[in-house]
Write a structure and sequence with these properties.
single chain; mainly alpha; 0% strand
């Protein structure tokens, strides 16, 4: 099951394909309920985000000063708090509703993007 979800995550290498969307759809294809699929997707995102943060911090290590470190710490704390709130709200939402609104949103925005790309 996990390998299959990972294979479906590879679709996110295609521009415009959501990694979390591929993970959630993949988990649901293998029998997970909406909430569990969304939780699994968020858990998979955490190591990626930590790795991206560590990589960026390493690349910018020469520019870090005590003033920057304080700003980064404050940003981290606020991001963590608001991220936690958004994730909890989203999980409550998907427990009671389907993903249809997100699917329609992607179709509308994708269609608008294609229209602007080719006709404007």
């Amino acid at each position: 099951m996990y390998f299959g979800i990972g294979v479906l995550q590879c679709l996110a290498m295609i521009p415009g394909v959501s990694r979390s969307g591929a993970t959630i759809v993949g988990a649901m294809m293998f029998g997970a309920d909406r909430r569990s699929a969304a939780e699994f997707s968020f858990w998979l995102a955490m190591p990626t985000m930590v790795g991206a943060f560590a990589y960026e911090a390493f690349k910018s290590r020469a520019d870090l000063t005590s003033g920057n470190t304080t700003a980064i710490a404050v940003g981290f704390i606020f991001s963590f708090i608001f991220g936690w709130i958004v994730v909890k709200t989203f999980l409550r939402y998907v427990q009671r509703h389907t993903f249809a609104v997100f699917a329609w949103w992607r179709i509308v925005i994708g269609g608008a993007g294609i229209y602007m790309l080719y006709f404007l």
